[in-house]
Structure formats: structure tokens, C-alpha cells
Write a structure and sequence with these properties.
Length: 148
């Protein structure tokens, strides 16, 4: 990365292969409405680093290289939410709780276990990441069209 430039980065937990494979069924069932996330990209985001410069990225690498955390149990809750951080930047965008809009991410909840919460807390504290309301989830994919 050129000096003075920044990027957005995230820290994630890859899911066990069996869980990724289990998600392929629901993804295929929704394929008419949702563009499925590629299996190798399915993850739980643990921290999002906005505008990271070279030093912040080095801090992220160091934390990951040196970090040791207990493997959390990952259970899906069945709760589905939708939204889009990128669409929120558009002044014309209006979130509708009852309608998934084209381009919004469709997300499936993951149980908020103490282990997962502890990993998230350590990452966000050590990297000084400010996040509101951690809701662990996997992204099934972006909506192809509006649907209820």
C-alpha cells in the first residue's frame, strides 16, 4: 500500500467446512432472490477496521499472529436480518424492516456465545475499534431484487 493511503479491512473467523456445506442448501433455496456468497468467503466478522493505514494494518497482523483464542462453538440461530453499510451512504436509501431491498446483504444469525464475545471484545479493544451492537452472523449473499 502506498504511503499515506488507507483501506478498509476486517478480521473474521472462518466457519467449519460442515457448517459451510450445510448453508449451501438454504442458499440454493433462496437463489432466485439472493446471490449466494461463495463458500470460501463465508465467515463471521469479528472486527471491521475503517480507514486503516499501514501502521493499523501492521497492528492487525501482529494481533492475529500473536493471538490465541479458544475455538468458539458456532450455532446458527435462524434469525435473519438484512441491510447494507454501503447503501447507507446513499442519501436516497431508506431501510425498510419488512422488505429486503436489492443490494442489501441477507444475514443469518450466529449464537452469541461467551467465547465469540470474548474474541470480539479483545480484537475491538486492542485495535481501538468502535462498533455498535455486535451481532454475530454469516452473510448468505446480496439481494438480487426486492422481496418481503
Amino acid at each position: 500500500m502506498a504511503s499515506g493511503r488507507t483501506t478498509n479491512a476486517f478480521i473474521c473467523l472462518r466457519l467449519p467446512t460442515a457448517l459451510v456445506e450445510a448453508l449451501s442448501g438454504p442458499q440454493q433455496d433462496c437463489r432466485d432472490y439472493v446471490d449466494p456468497q461463495e463458500p470460501e468467503h463465508i465467515h463471521i466478522t469479528l472486527g471491521f477496521v475503517h480507514g486503516a493505514d499501514e501502521q493499523k494494518l501492521a497492528d492487525v497482523r501482529s494481533l492475529i499472529d500473536q493471538g490465541t483464542w479458544p475455538a468458539p462453538v458456532v450455532r446458527l440461530t435462524g434469525e435473519v436480518r438484512h441491510g447494507s453499510w454501503s447503501l447507507q451512504k446513499d442519501p436516497a436509501y431508506r431501510y425498510d424492516e419488512n422488505t429486503v431491498q436489492t443490494g442489501e446483504q441477507v444475514r443469518l444469525g450466529v449464537e452469541h456465545s461467551p467465547e465469540l464475545a470474548g474474541i470480539h471484545e479483545e480484537i475491538t479493544q486492542r485495535l481501538d475499534i468502535a462498533e455498535d451492537g455486535f451481532w454475530p452472523h454469516v452473510t448468505l449473499g446480496p439481494a438480487r431484487e426486492d422481496f418481503p
